[in-house]
Amino acid sequence: MNNNSCRFIARTNITFTSSPDVKGGGCLYGSNLGHKSPRKYGGAQVFTYKDLEVATDRFNEANVIGSGEYGVVYRGILADGTVAAIKMLRRQGKQGERAFRIEVDLLSRLHSPYLVELLGYCADQHHRLLIFEFMSNGTLQNHLHHKRFQPLDWGTRLQIALDCARALEFLHEHTFPAVIHRDFKCSNILLDQNFHAKVSDFGFAKMGSEKINGQTLTRVLGTTGYLAPEYASTGKLTTKSDVYSYGVVLLQLLTGRIPVDTKRPPGEHVLVSWALPRLTNREKAVEMVDPALRGLYSKKDLIQVAAIAAMCVQPEADYRPLMTDVVQSLIPLVKNLSSISSSASSRVQNQIVVPGPRDS
Questions:
Q1: What sign for the dihedral angle of Cα 215, 221, 223, 224?
Q2: pLDDT at position 226 over 80
Q3: pLDDT digits (tens, 9 = 90+) for 284-339
Q4: Model-level pTM?
Q5: Is the C-alpha dihedral spanning 210, 20, 86, 78 positive or negative?
Q6: Quick one: 324 exposed, middle or buried, by C-beta within 10 A (0-12, 13-18, 19+)?
Q7: Residues 6+ apart with CB under 8 A from 264
Q8: Nearest partner of 123 among 42, 55, 31, 59, judged by Cα
Q9: Any known ligand binding at 236?
Q10: Does 66 score more than 80 pLDDT?
């Protein structure tokens, strides 16, 4: 396996048999208060609630960097000086506990440059918090759909598309059994200081069948507009369900539109329904492009990305590609952009005039 894609040489085996225990409101590592808590679980550090109070200045509102139905995310500084994103979960009951355990279990074992790194967790009595690496540019959702953010250029959008494809490739094809994210969407894609993307929020993740192309029957969870049709209607979940969601994100990168927008004219409310018949028509594909790009993109690359998106959002799961195929299709486009950028940079440097004796 390519060393650039993740830190694993062989397929990673995942099991929940050693899952940490949560009982009686105690800590994740057990409820025996006389037992000294371990400081590590599967590579993730164990924090007390007091540790995180200190890190966030008592969860000061000034440190809030995000919020939603899942809870609130704070920027914090850990005792060793590390800047971190500290997510305080709101989920209550069995579903909330399950989501917390899944995220700790998976992310303490899965390590890829394309997944947000779990630094640690807190399960101090009724408190449930997750501590992640800090991603300074926030969510892809904000950069695509909020006017206070500068529009992303074409090259950055292609790089984000490739990073996300690598993340899903790793989950689907380099872990065993496969991990199905089940809630892949723009708000769960985070951007670092260089606008490289990493996938986050594994609370809904599900282990796939150990059979090749196997499916799992499960209750439907996820976000409207991103759900694959066969999963939404029957609960049949496969890795191809994530591929569909990826296709929706790719359409958002292309068009700047949200998945469901009832403010649009009739026939344009659902992004996939509106886009699918246009993606394979060159003229109509160009008309779909996000106006924020101001025409600054390669038409040839656009047609190729539109074709990838069209395959990913096919109504029939069997017609959707593997994420490995998506990755291999995007790599040349990103490499070509990098080479163009490098040659342009060198031309600029060659044109710089160094003042001589007569110019000074």
A1: positive
A2: yes
A3: 999 999 999 999 999 999 999 999 999 999 999 999 999 999 999 999 999 998 77
A4: 0.85
A5: negative
A6: middle
A7: 257, 274
A8: 31
A9: no
A10: yes
Q: What is the mean pLDDT of the chain?
A: 86
Residue 94: what pLDDT?
80
Token output for 132: 């992640």
> Regarding beta strands 12-13 and 175-176, do their DSSP bridges make them parallel or antiparallel, or are they unpaired?
parallel
State in Å, rounded, how far the first CA of the chain is from the last one.
56
Cross-strand bridge partners of residue 46? 121
Determine whether 189 is exposed, middle or buried from the number of CB atoms within 10 Å of its CB (0-12, 13-18, 19+).
Answer: buried
User: Tens digits of per-residue pLDDT, 5-20?
Assistant: 444 334 666 654 333 4
Instruction: Domains for the chain: give ranges and CATH numbers.
Output: 19-133 (3.30.200.20), 140-340 (1.10.510.10)
- pLDDT tens digits, residue range 266-284? 999 999 999 999 999 999 9
Q: Which amino acid is at 197?
A: A
Nearest CA to 127 among 160, 89, 165, 161? 89
Taking the CA atoms of 186, 195, 88 and 141 in sequence, report the sign of the dihedral they define.
negative
Active site residue 183: yes
Of 302, 294, 12, nearest in space to 175 by CA: 12
Kindly provide the b/e burial profile for residues 43-70, where b requires at least 16 CB atoms within 10 angstroms of the residue's own CB.
Answer: ebbbbebebbeebbeebeeebebbeeeb
- Catalytic residue, chosen from 105, 124, 163, 183, is 183
